[in-house]
């Protein structure tokens, strides 16, 4: 991978990271804004609020997972190990990195991990 390609992936990763951080911040801000419920049907309202909280927690987890994956990829750029499979150190194909610049494994290792 040449320097220009690496810079392009780095830029994509940095903007991905900013997006995750934004989403997390937005979600946390929204969580703080859940208004106290004044509906007469308190039980249903409480159940809705609980379901909403679970949903937000799931989303938060998803954003945090992605954030960590992207941060790890950026760390690999800095360490000069970007684009190398974390399992076998083979070069990760450009197609895989194009579809996800934070990709961790080469096709072969990914297939092995997904195999039952
Ligand atoms: Zn591999």
Main beta-sheet annotation: none
Contiguous helical run count: 4
**Regions with pLDDT < 50 over 5+ consecutive residues?**
none
The separation of the N and C termini measures: 32 Å
Element-by-element helix/strand order:
HHHH
Identify the bound ligands.
zinc ion
Mean pLDDT: 91
Rg computed from alpha carbons, rounded to a whole number of angstroms? 20 Å
Rough shape? elongated
Question: Helix coverage percent of residues?
Answer: over 70%
Strand content: under 5%
Count of DSSP E strands? 0
Structural class: mainly alpha
How would you describe this structure to a colleague?
The protein is built from four helices and no strands. The chain has a domain at 3-82. The chain is 71% helix and 0% strand. The protein has helices at residues 3-32, 42-79, 94-99, 107-114. Helix 1 packs antiparallel against helix 2 (42-79). The two termini are 32 Å apart. It is mainly α and 116 residues long.
Task: Jot down its keywords.
single chain, 116 residues, mainly alpha, 4 helices, elongated, binds zinc ion
How is this fold's topology laid out?
Blueprint: H1 3-32, H2 42-79, H3 94-99, H4 107-114
Helix pairs in contact: 1-2
Write a concise synopsis of the structure shown.
The protein is built from four helices and no strands. It has 116 residues and is mainly α.
């Amino acid at each position: 991978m040449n320097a220009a390609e690496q810079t392009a992936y780095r830029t994509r990763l940095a903007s991905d990271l900013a997006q995750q951080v934004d989403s997390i911040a937005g979600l946390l801000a929204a969580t703080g804004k859940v208004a106290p419920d004044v509906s007469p049907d308190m039980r249903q309202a409480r159940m809705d609020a609980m379901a909403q909280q679970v949903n937000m927690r799931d989303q938060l987890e998803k954003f945090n997972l992605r954030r960590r994956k992207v941060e790890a990829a950026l760390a690999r750029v800095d360490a000069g190990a970007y684009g190398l499979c974390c399992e076998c150190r083979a070069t990760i194909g450009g197609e895989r990195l194009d579809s996800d610049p934070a990709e961790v494994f080469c096709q072969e290792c990914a297939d092995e991990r997904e195999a039952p």
